[in-house]
Amino acid sequence: MLVNSGGGVILLGLWSIIKGLLTVYLQFDDIVEPQMLTELGENAVFLKPIMIVMSFIGLGFVLLLRLFVGLNAYREGRGRRFRRTYPFFAIILFLLGLIGFILELRVLFSSDSAKDTTLATLLLDLASLFILFQTLAAVFSVRRLQKAKGEQ
């Protein structure tokens, strides 16, 4: 169970990177207010590349967290050496994903634009939350069983 969950955490982490970069690139005009662009003047042309680079850095951090969680779940599932702190980071990723899911749900019901693509991203985000929850459930079940086995 942990082996499959670890792979799912990594693969859906790649999805979050792609989704984040495409959101910044394609919905740049919705993210940045026109007043900000007029205040920047000539420097406004640098805003989009800077936002993409900053998003890439932030999303890279999220991908590293997902790799850490996914690879350690995979290792624990295979009986190899792993870091015992990875469930803590899985909980953080789950909470961040839940916040993002709720915010996207609000966007779905509040705006008229791109309901089909927002629904598709919501379904993938829900799958990501499910995989993280499944990983956490498996980790705590395995550790509880190992503790019970050690007490016998």
Report on the structure:
The protein is elongated, with a radius of gyration of 19 Å. The chain has 152 residues and is an all-alpha fold. It has helices at 2-26, 28-31, 34-40, 47-78, 86-110, 115-151. It has 6 helices and no strands. It has one domain.
Summarize the structure.
The chain is mainly α and 152 residues long. The protein has six helices and no strands. It has one domain.
Question: Which terms would index this structure?
Answer:
about 150 residues; mainly alpha; about 85% helix
Secondary-structure map:
Elements: H1 2-26, H2 28-31, H3 34-40, H4 47-78, H5 86-110, H6 115-151
The rounded Rg comes to 19 Å
Write down the secondary-structure element order. Answer: HHHHHH
- End-to-end separation: 24 Å
Mean pLDDT, as a whole number?
83
Unreliable stretches covering 5 or more consecutive residues: none
Outline: elongated
Proportion of residues in helical segments: over 70%
Beta strands, count: 0
Structural class: mainly alpha
Number of domains as seen in the coordinates: 1
How would you characterize the largest beta sheet? none
Number of helices: 6
User: How large a portion of the residues is in β-strands, by DSSP E?
Assistant: under 5%
